[in-house]
Amino acid sequence: MDTLSNSTPHYSLGYSAEFIGFLRGLAEREFRYVSPYLEPGMRVLDVGCGPGFLSVLLAQGQLLGIDIEPTQVEIARATGQRSGCDNASFQLADAVDLPSEDDQYDLVHAGGLLLHLPDTARALGEMHRVLRPGGTIVCRELLPDAVFVHPDRRQLLKRGLQIFTDLVAADDGHPHIALALKPSLRRAGFDEIELTASFDVYDTPKRIDVFATLIERWFLGGDLGRWAQSYGAASDDLLAEVSRELGAWRRNPDALAGLAVATAAATKS
Predict the structure, then answer these.
(1) CA 89, 92, 95, 98 torsion: positive or negative?
(2) Could you tell me which of 178, 195, 183, 186 has the C-alpha nearest to residue 265?
(3) How would DSSP label each residue in the chain?
(4) What is the pLDDT of residue 18?
């Protein structure tokens, strides 16, 4: 298996089966935010492609997906094969050292990536370099302060979100990078920057079960919870309290949650 010394200490979200399954369900919803910028035959670069579920949808022409994690590249290759997507390839690479020539792509996509990178300026500079003049970059990043979970009488579920942002920051990331997308893209040389925001709402019993199961198995009882404890961002008692509150929320007929995400699109002159 290939290895790569990368610019991120480790991926704060982890690579659990629960999180991979969540990404599979999220791909089609994410595609609708990127599809307005796609045209048939476009050369696309998907930076931080993960398991490739969204990448194969973005492959309107030739697509290269890159990720720093070897297991994710292997899964992405299998995703491409299963979907019959012959025009998508996947490669182990770092966002701050892209394996592409200058002015090569019509569209560069980075979804949920920049918050994990210590050096976002260098990564955006690389994306600017490989994008052709007139090409488009699309970035999607979480807006943690706008995420909501209701009811949350003791604010414990909100505290759980704070644990996540604390962990990303402790891992040399930028949990609030969504608020800085406009100046970050401008400093990297991009023009015509457009910002929008959206909510992915969890309101039906099935969607609430998906959301709660992900948090319970991936966060509270999985890699993220263990990493949060190792970084001092959470204790056993706090995680147990959040778990109990999550169970009560899950059983509440009025349960509602929303993940807020910012989309930034810009061009290279």
Answers:
(1) negative
(2) 195
(3) ------SSS--TT---HHHHHHHHHHHHHHHHHHGGG--TT--EEEET-TTSTTHHHH-SS-EEEEES-HHHHHHHHHHHHHHT-TTEEEEE-BTTB-SS-TT-EEEEEEES-GGG-S-HHHHHHHHHHHEEEEEEEEEEEE-GGG-EEE--TTSHHHHHHHHHHHHHHHTT--TTGGGGHHHHHHHTT-EEEEEEEEEEEE-SHHHHHHHHHHIIIIIISSHHHHHHHHTTS--HHHHHHHHHHHHHHHH-TT-EEEEEEEEEEEE--
(4) 53
CA distance 103 to 101: 7
CB 197 within 8 A of CB 145: no
CATH for the stretch 17-267: 3.40.50.150
- Burial of 41-67, coded b for 16+ CB within 10 Å and e otherwise, reads ebbbbbbbbbbbbbbbbbbbbbbbbbb
Report which of 264, 225, 216 is spatially closest to residue 244, judged by C-alpha positions: 216
pTM for this entry: 0.89
**Angle, CA of 1, 173 and 232, to the nearest 5°:** 95
* pLDDT reported for residue 19: 54
Along the chain (269 residues), what's the average pLDDT of each consecutive run of 10 residues? Answer: 41 51 73 95 96 94 96 93 94 97 98 95 98 98 94 87 87 95 98 96 92 80 78 84 92 95 97
Could you give the CA distance from residue 2 to residue 176 in angstroms, rounded to a whole number? Answer: 32
Cα–Cα dist 115/20, whole Å = 18
